[in-house]
Amino acid sequence: MKKYSSYDAIICDGAIRSGKTVSMSIGFVMWAMSRFKNGTFALCGKTVTSLRRNVVSPLLDTLNTLDFTCSEKVSKNYFDVSVCGISNRFYLFGGKDEGSSALIQGITLCGVFFDEVALMPRSFVEQALARCSINGSKLWFNCNPDNPYHWFYREWILKSKEKNALYLHFTMEDNPSLSHNIKERYKRMYSGIFYDRFVLGKWTVSSGIVYPMFDKSHHVVKRIPNSFSRYIVSCDYGIINPTSMGLWGLNDGIWFRINEYYYSSRENGNKLHTDEEYYQSLEELTRGYDIETIIVDPSASSFIECIRRHNHFNVTKANNDVLNGIRRVSDALNQDLILFSERCQNSIREFSQYCWNEKLNNDTPLKQHDHAMDDIRYFVTYALRFNSNDDFFCYSLARD
User: Alpha helix locations (H) across 174-321?
Assistant: First the structure.
Protein backbone atom coordinates (compact mmCIF):
# COMPACT_ATOMS: atom_id res chain seq x y z
CA MET A 1 0.00 0.00 0.00
CA LYS A 2 1.10 3.52 -0.76
CA LYS A 3 1.14 4.64 2.89
CA TYR A 4 3.91 2.11 3.63
CA SER A 5 6.06 2.87 0.59
CA SER A 6 8.23 5.45 2.37
CA TYR A 7 9.74 2.92 4.79
CA ASP A 8 13.34 1.82 4.19
CA ALA A 9 12.90 -1.53 5.92
CA ILE A 10 10.34 -3.97 7.24
CA ILE A 11 10.88 -6.11 10.35
CA CYS A 12 8.68 -9.09 11.25
CA ASP A 13 9.22 -11.03 14.48
CA GLY A 14 7.09 -13.13 16.78
CA ALA A 15 5.99 -16.67 17.53
CA ILE A 16 7.02 -19.77 15.62
CA ARG A 17 4.56 -21.03 12.98
CA SER A 18 2.93 -17.62 12.79
CA GLY A 19 3.33 -17.24 9.02
CA LYS A 20 6.23 -14.76 9.07
CA THR A 21 8.43 -16.56 6.57
CA VAL A 22 5.70 -17.29 4.03
CA SER A 23 4.30 -13.76 4.18
CA MET A 24 7.71 -12.10 4.05
CA SER A 25 9.24 -14.21 1.26
CA ILE A 26 6.24 -13.86 -1.05
CA GLY A 27 5.96 -10.17 -0.22
CA PHE A 28 9.65 -9.65 -0.93
CA VAL A 29 9.47 -11.16 -4.42
CA MET A 30 6.19 -9.38 -5.25
CA TRP A 31 7.71 -6.06 -4.20
CA ALA A 32 10.88 -6.75 -6.21
CA MET A 33 8.93 -7.64 -9.36
CA SER A 34 6.73 -4.54 -9.08
CA ARG A 35 9.60 -2.10 -8.53
CA PHE A 36 12.59 -3.33 -10.56
CA LYS A 37 13.49 -4.86 -13.89
CA ASN A 38 16.70 -6.86 -14.42
CA GLY A 39 17.57 -6.20 -10.79
CA THR A 40 19.70 -8.25 -8.41
CA PHE A 41 18.45 -9.26 -4.95
CA ALA A 42 19.65 -11.43 -2.08
CA LEU A 43 17.92 -13.91 0.20
CA CYS A 44 19.96 -14.75 3.28
CA GLY A 45 19.63 -17.57 5.81
CA LYS A 46 21.90 -19.09 8.41
CA THR A 47 23.01 -21.56 5.73
CA VAL A 48 22.13 -21.86 2.05
CA THR A 49 20.84 -25.38 2.72
CA SER A 50 18.38 -24.25 5.41
CA LEU A 51 17.40 -21.23 3.32
CA ARG A 52 16.62 -23.39 0.30
CA ARG A 53 14.65 -25.87 2.41
CA ASN A 54 12.71 -23.41 4.58
CA VAL A 55 12.21 -20.48 2.21
CA VAL A 56 13.13 -21.02 -1.43
CA SER A 57 11.43 -24.36 -2.16
CA PRO A 58 7.99 -23.36 -0.80
CA LEU A 59 8.39 -19.88 -2.28
CA LEU A 60 9.04 -21.18 -5.81
CA ASP A 61 6.12 -23.61 -5.51
CA THR A 62 3.83 -20.72 -4.64
CA LEU A 63 5.16 -18.44 -7.39
CA ASN A 64 4.66 -21.17 -10.00
CA THR A 65 0.98 -21.44 -9.04
CA LEU A 66 0.67 -17.67 -9.53
CA ASP A 67 1.90 -17.87 -13.16
CA PHE A 68 5.40 -16.58 -12.45
CA THR A 69 8.17 -18.28 -14.40
CA CYS A 70 10.94 -19.45 -12.06
CA SER A 71 14.28 -20.88 -13.10
CA GLU A 72 16.64 -22.09 -10.38
CA LYS A 73 20.39 -22.56 -10.81
CA VAL A 74 21.17 -24.73 -7.78
CA SER A 75 24.90 -25.05 -8.45
CA LYS A 76 25.32 -21.25 -8.50
CA ASN A 77 22.86 -20.48 -5.71
CA TYR A 78 20.42 -18.22 -7.51
CA PHE A 79 17.02 -18.30 -9.17
CA ASP A 80 15.42 -16.03 -11.77
CA VAL A 81 11.79 -14.91 -11.67
CA SER A 82 9.90 -13.57 -14.70
CA VAL A 83 6.39 -12.26 -15.27
CA CYS A 84 4.84 -9.93 -17.88
CA GLY A 85 8.22 -9.30 -19.54
CA ILE A 86 9.96 -8.40 -16.24
CA SER A 87 12.84 -10.52 -14.92
CA ASN A 88 14.93 -10.30 -11.75
CA ARG A 89 17.63 -12.46 -10.19
CA PHE A 90 17.72 -13.61 -6.56
CA TYR A 91 20.98 -14.87 -5.06
CA LEU A 92 21.16 -17.10 -1.96
CA PHE A 93 23.67 -16.49 0.84
CA GLY A 94 24.42 -18.20 4.14
CA GLY A 95 25.42 -16.13 7.17
CA LYS A 96 26.46 -18.75 9.70
CA ASP A 97 29.61 -17.11 11.13
CA GLU A 98 31.84 -14.03 11.08
CA GLY A 99 33.67 -15.24 7.97
CA SER A 100 30.43 -15.25 5.98
CA SER A 101 30.55 -11.50 5.44
CA ALA A 102 33.22 -12.04 2.79
CA LEU A 103 30.77 -14.08 0.70
CA ILE A 104 28.49 -11.14 -0.02
CA GLN A 105 31.14 -8.48 -0.59
CA GLY A 106 31.25 -6.79 -3.99
CA ILE A 107 27.68 -7.43 -5.14
CA THR A 108 25.24 -4.53 -5.71
CA LEU A 109 21.68 -5.21 -4.60
CA CYS A 110 18.23 -3.72 -5.05
CA GLY A 111 17.03 -5.38 -1.87
CA VAL A 112 17.86 -8.07 0.68
CA PHE A 113 15.73 -10.48 2.69
CA PHE A 114 17.05 -12.04 5.92
CA ASP A 115 15.34 -15.19 7.18
CA GLU A 116 16.05 -15.72 10.91
CA VAL A 117 18.28 -12.67 11.12
CA ALA A 118 18.79 -13.15 14.88
CA LEU A 119 20.83 -16.28 14.09
CA MET A 120 23.30 -14.38 11.89
CA PRO A 121 26.42 -12.51 13.00
CA ARG A 122 26.17 -8.74 12.92
CA SER A 123 29.16 -8.45 10.55
CA PHE A 124 27.39 -10.49 7.87
CA VAL A 125 24.11 -8.57 8.18
CA GLU A 126 25.79 -5.17 8.03
CA GLN A 127 27.90 -6.19 5.03
CA ALA A 128 24.73 -7.28 3.23
CA LEU A 129 22.98 -4.02 4.12
CA ALA A 130 25.91 -2.08 2.68
CA ARG A 131 25.33 -3.83 -0.66
CA CYS A 132 21.88 -2.21 -1.07
CA SER A 133 22.92 0.98 -2.82
CA ILE A 134 20.37 1.07 -5.68
CA ASN A 135 17.82 3.88 -5.45
CA GLY A 136 14.59 2.48 -4.02
CA SER A 137 16.26 -0.54 -2.42
CA LYS A 138 14.73 -1.88 0.81
CA LEU A 139 15.65 -4.19 3.66
CA TRP A 140 13.49 -7.11 4.83
CA PHE A 141 14.06 -8.81 8.21
CA ASN A 142 12.36 -11.86 9.68
CA CYS A 143 13.16 -13.63 12.98
CA ASN A 144 12.00 -15.44 16.09
CA PRO A 145 12.83 -13.58 19.33
CA ASP A 146 16.06 -14.13 21.24
CA ASN A 147 17.28 -12.45 24.42
CA PRO A 148 16.59 -8.71 24.90
CA TYR A 149 20.32 -7.93 24.80
CA HIS A 150 20.67 -9.31 21.28
CA TRP A 151 22.24 -6.78 18.92
CA PHE A 152 19.38 -6.99 16.40
CA TYR A 153 16.73 -6.30 19.03
CA ARG A 154 18.65 -3.33 20.44
CA GLU A 155 19.79 -1.84 17.12
CA TRP A 156 16.76 -2.46 14.91
CA ILE A 157 13.59 -3.35 16.80
CA LEU A 158 14.02 -0.83 19.60
CA LYS A 159 15.18 1.76 17.03
CA SER A 160 12.68 0.89 14.28
CA LYS A 161 11.34 4.45 14.06
CA GLU A 162 14.84 5.88 13.98
CA LYS A 163 15.76 3.40 11.22
CA ASN A 164 12.56 4.26 9.31
CA ALA A 165 11.50 0.61 9.54
CA LEU A 166 7.98 -0.80 9.64
CA TYR A 167 7.84 -3.19 12.62
CA LEU A 168 5.24 -6.00 12.63
CA HIS A 169 4.79 -8.53 15.43
CA PHE A 170 3.26 -11.91 14.56
CA THR A 171 1.43 -14.42 16.77
CA MET A 172 0.13 -17.90 15.97
CA GLU A 173 -3.31 -16.35 15.54
CA ASP A 174 -1.98 -14.65 12.40
CA ASN A 175 -1.55 -18.03 10.68
CA PRO A 176 -4.96 -19.18 9.38
CA SER A 177 -3.58 -22.60 8.43
CA LEU A 178 -3.04 -23.62 12.08
CA SER A 179 -5.94 -25.39 13.72
CA HIS A 180 -6.83 -24.83 17.37
CA ASN A 181 -5.52 -28.30 18.26
CA ILE A 182 -2.15 -27.66 16.61
CA LYS A 183 -1.77 -24.32 18.38
CA GLU A 184 -2.58 -25.96 21.70
CA ARG A 185 -0.04 -28.67 20.98
CA TYR A 186 2.68 -26.09 20.40
CA LYS A 187 1.77 -24.43 23.70
CA ARG A 188 2.23 -27.76 25.49
CA MET A 189 5.60 -28.38 23.85
CA TYR A 190 7.48 -25.46 25.40
CA SER A 191 8.01 -23.92 28.81
CA GLY A 192 10.27 -21.31 30.43
CA ILE A 193 12.11 -18.97 28.10
CA PHE A 194 11.31 -21.16 25.10
CA TYR A 195 7.56 -20.77 25.72
CA ASP A 196 7.99 -17.00 26.07
CA ARG A 197 9.97 -16.77 22.83
CA PHE A 198 8.48 -19.44 20.58
CA VAL A 199 4.83 -19.27 21.65
CA LEU A 200 4.37 -15.74 23.00
CA GLY A 201 6.97 -14.21 20.69
CA LYS A 202 8.72 -12.22 23.43
CA TRP A 203 12.33 -11.07 23.56
CA THR A 204 12.78 -12.32 27.12
CA VAL A 205 15.78 -12.79 29.38
CA SER A 206 16.79 -16.23 30.62
CA SER A 207 16.53 -16.58 34.40
CA GLY A 208 16.05 -19.14 37.15
CA ILE A 209 16.17 -22.91 36.71
CA VAL A 210 17.12 -24.02 33.19
CA TYR A 211 14.61 -26.89 33.16
CA PRO A 212 11.54 -25.74 35.13
CA MET A 213 9.46 -28.37 33.31
CA PHE A 214 11.34 -31.24 34.98
CA ASP A 215 9.00 -32.86 37.51
CA LYS A 216 10.47 -35.56 39.71
CA SER A 217 7.05 -37.08 40.33
CA HIS A 218 6.47 -37.35 36.58
CA HIS A 219 9.85 -37.83 34.88
CA VAL A 220 11.35 -40.24 37.43
CA VAL A 221 9.89 -43.75 37.28
CA LYS A 222 10.13 -46.51 39.86
CA ARG A 223 9.97 -49.27 37.28
CA ILE A 224 11.57 -49.28 33.87
CA PRO A 225 10.77 -51.71 31.03
CA ASN A 226 12.42 -55.12 30.91
CA SER A 227 13.57 -54.84 27.32
CA PHE A 228 14.82 -52.14 24.96
CA SER A 229 15.39 -51.99 21.20
CA ARG A 230 18.45 -49.70 21.35
CA TYR A 231 21.10 -48.75 23.90
CA ILE A 232 23.26 -45.61 23.92
CA VAL A 233 25.69 -44.14 26.44
CA SER A 234 26.33 -40.40 26.81
CA CYS A 235 29.37 -39.04 28.59
CA ASP A 236 30.55 -35.68 29.92
CA TYR A 237 34.22 -36.09 30.79
CA GLY A 238 36.12 -34.31 33.53
CA ILE A 239 39.51 -34.63 35.17
CA ILE A 240 39.10 -32.33 38.15
CA ASN A 241 35.45 -31.69 37.39
CA PRO A 242 33.04 -34.64 37.65
CA THR A 243 32.65 -37.22 34.92
CA SER A 244 29.07 -38.25 34.19
CA MET A 245 27.91 -41.17 32.04
CA GLY A 246 24.33 -42.20 31.32
CA LEU A 247 23.06 -45.54 30.01
CA TRP A 248 19.94 -45.08 27.86
CA GLY A 249 17.46 -47.58 26.43
CA LEU A 250 14.67 -47.08 23.89
CA ASN A 251 11.26 -48.66 24.52
CA ASP A 252 8.12 -47.80 22.53
CA GLY A 253 9.39 -44.40 21.44
CA ILE A 254 10.61 -43.34 24.89
CA TRP A 255 14.24 -43.22 26.02
CA PHE A 256 14.85 -44.30 29.60
CA ARG A 257 18.00 -43.35 31.51
CA ILE A 258 18.47 -46.83 32.95
CA ASN A 259 21.53 -46.18 35.06
CA GLU A 260 24.42 -43.75 35.39
CA TYR A 261 28.00 -43.36 36.55
CA TYR A 262 29.13 -40.16 38.28
CA TYR A 263 32.57 -39.51 39.76
CA SER A 264 33.82 -36.29 41.38
CA SER A 265 37.46 -36.14 42.42
CA ARG A 266 36.69 -33.28 44.81
CA GLU A 267 34.23 -35.46 46.67
CA ASN A 268 36.72 -38.32 46.79
CA GLY A 269 39.71 -36.66 48.45
CA ASN A 270 40.93 -35.08 45.18
CA LYS A 271 41.79 -38.54 43.86
CA LEU A 272 41.99 -38.19 40.09
CA HIS A 273 40.99 -41.05 37.80
CA THR A 274 42.90 -41.96 34.66
CA ASP A 275 41.29 -42.54 31.27
CA GLU A 276 41.77 -46.28 31.79
CA GLU A 277 39.95 -46.15 35.12
CA TYR A 278 37.07 -44.27 33.51
CA TYR A 279 37.04 -46.81 30.69
CA GLN A 280 36.73 -49.66 33.18
CA SER A 281 33.79 -47.83 34.78
CA LEU A 282 32.24 -47.53 31.31
CA GLU A 283 32.64 -51.30 30.84
CA GLU A 284 30.93 -51.93 34.18
CA LEU A 285 28.06 -49.57 33.37
CA THR A 286 27.37 -51.27 30.03
CA ARG A 287 28.03 -54.90 30.89
CA GLY A 288 25.35 -57.11 29.35
CA TYR A 289 24.05 -54.41 26.97
CA ASP A 290 24.56 -54.16 23.20
CA ILE A 291 25.66 -50.51 22.96
CA GLU A 292 25.05 -48.67 19.70
CA THR A 293 27.56 -45.89 20.41
CA ILE A 294 29.20 -43.86 23.17
CA ILE A 295 28.52 -40.13 22.75
CA VAL A 296 31.40 -38.21 24.33
CA ASP A 297 32.16 -34.58 25.13
CA PRO A 298 34.05 -33.46 21.96
CA SER A 299 36.84 -31.86 24.04
CA ALA A 300 37.68 -35.19 25.73
CA SER A 301 40.16 -36.21 23.05
CA SER A 302 42.27 -38.48 25.29
CA PHE A 303 39.25 -40.43 26.56
CA ILE A 304 37.82 -40.72 23.03
CA GLU A 305 41.14 -42.18 21.91
CA CYS A 306 41.15 -44.53 24.90
CA ILE A 307 37.73 -45.90 23.92
CA ARG A 308 38.78 -46.31 20.30
CA ARG A 309 41.99 -48.08 21.28
CA HIS A 310 40.08 -50.79 23.14
CA ASN A 311 38.10 -51.41 19.93
CA HIS A 312 34.97 -52.54 21.78
CA PHE A 313 32.60 -49.55 21.38
CA ASN A 314 31.72 -47.18 18.60
CA VAL A 315 32.37 -43.62 19.75
CA THR A 316 30.69 -40.40 18.57
CA LYS A 317 31.81 -36.85 19.31
CA ALA A 318 28.89 -34.95 20.84
CA ASN A 319 27.34 -31.81 19.39
CA ASN A 320 28.13 -29.13 21.98
CA ASP A 321 25.70 -26.41 20.83
CA VAL A 322 24.56 -25.45 24.33
CA LEU A 323 21.43 -23.33 23.79
CA ASN A 324 19.96 -25.47 21.03
CA GLY A 325 20.79 -28.54 23.10
CA ILE A 326 18.94 -27.08 26.10
CA ARG A 327 15.94 -26.34 23.88
CA ARG A 328 15.93 -29.93 22.63
CA VAL A 329 16.11 -31.35 26.16
CA SER A 330 13.26 -29.02 27.16
CA ASP A 331 11.21 -30.29 24.22
CA ALA A 332 11.98 -33.90 25.10
CA LEU A 333 10.92 -33.37 28.72
CA ASN A 334 7.73 -31.60 27.70
CA GLN A 335 6.84 -34.42 25.31
CA ASP A 336 7.82 -37.24 27.69
CA LEU A 337 10.43 -38.54 25.27
CA ILE A 338 12.96 -39.08 28.10
CA LEU A 339 12.35 -40.60 31.54
CA PHE A 340 14.70 -41.46 34.40
CA SER A 341 15.23 -44.43 36.68
CA GLU A 342 15.32 -43.76 40.41
CA ARG A 343 18.94 -44.94 40.31
CA CYS A 344 19.95 -41.76 38.44
CA GLN A 345 20.21 -39.64 41.57
CA ASN A 346 22.89 -37.26 40.27
CA SER A 347 20.80 -36.36 37.21
CA ILE A 348 17.76 -35.82 39.40
CA ARG A 349 19.78 -33.61 41.77
CA GLU A 350 21.30 -31.48 38.97
CA PHE A 351 17.91 -30.80 37.39
CA SER A 352 16.98 -28.88 40.55
CA GLN A 353 20.32 -26.99 40.67
CA TYR A 354 21.13 -26.12 37.04
CA CYS A 355 20.47 -22.37 36.60
CA TRP A 356 20.89 -19.56 34.09
CA ASN A 357 23.69 -17.05 34.69
CA GLU A 358 21.65 -13.91 35.25
CA LYS A 359 24.76 -11.70 35.42
CA LEU A 360 25.48 -12.19 31.73
CA ASN A 361 23.52 -10.50 28.96
CA ASN A 362 23.02 -13.70 27.00
CA ASP A 363 21.63 -17.21 27.34
CA THR A 364 24.40 -18.87 29.33
CA PRO A 365 23.91 -21.40 32.13
CA LEU A 366 26.11 -21.27 35.20
CA LYS A 367 29.02 -23.71 34.99
CA GLN A 368 27.82 -25.47 38.12
CA HIS A 369 25.86 -28.67 38.64
CA ASP A 370 26.01 -29.22 34.90
CA HIS A 371 27.86 -32.49 34.30
CA ALA A 372 24.90 -34.86 34.10
CA MET A 373 23.06 -31.98 32.40
CA ASP A 374 25.74 -31.88 29.71
CA ASP A 375 25.73 -35.61 29.07
CA ILE A 376 21.92 -35.58 28.87
CA ARG A 377 22.11 -32.71 26.38
CA TYR A 378 24.64 -34.64 24.27
CA PHE A 379 22.37 -37.66 24.29
CA VAL A 380 19.17 -35.85 23.34
CA THR A 381 20.86 -33.92 20.53
CA TYR A 382 22.17 -37.18 19.07
CA ALA A 383 19.35 -39.66 19.69
CA LEU A 384 16.35 -37.41 19.00
CA ARG A 385 17.55 -35.80 15.80
CA PHE A 386 14.57 -36.71 13.62
CA ASN A 387 15.18 -34.28 10.78
CA SER A 388 17.63 -31.62 9.68
CA ASN A 389 15.65 -28.97 11.59
CA ASP A 390 15.96 -30.85 14.90
CA ASP A 391 12.23 -30.33 15.19
CA PHE A 392 10.75 -32.73 17.75
CA PHE A 393 7.29 -31.55 16.69
CA CYS A 394 7.54 -33.80 13.63
CA TYR A 395 8.14 -36.76 15.94
CA SER A 396 5.30 -35.73 18.22
CA LEU A 397 2.92 -35.82 15.25
CA ALA A 398 4.23 -39.23 14.22
CA ARG A 399 3.61 -40.65 17.69
CA ASP A 400 0.02 -39.38 17.67
Answer: 180-189, 192-194, 216-219, 275-286, 301-310
Average confidence score pLDDT of the chain: 91
DSSP string covering 155-187, please?
A: IIITTTTTTTEEEEEE-GGG-TTS-HHHHHHHH
3-state SS track over 331-397: HHHHCCCEEEECCCHHHHHHHCCCEECCCCCCCCECCCCCHHHHHHHHHHHHHCCCCCCCCHHHHHH
Angle at 216 between CA 213 and CA 220, to 5 degrees: 115
pLDDT tens string 289-308 = 999 999 999 999 999 999 99
- The CA distance from 354 to 373, in Å, is 8
Q: Are 137 and 109 a contacting pair, CB within 8 Å?
A: yes
Q: What is the pTM of this model?
A: 0.73
Taking the C-alpha atoms of residue 80 and residue 71, their distance in angstroms, rounded to an integer, is 5
Q: 114-149 burial string, b = 16+ CB within 10 Å, else e?
A: bbbbbbbbeebbebbbebbebeebbbbbbbbbbbee
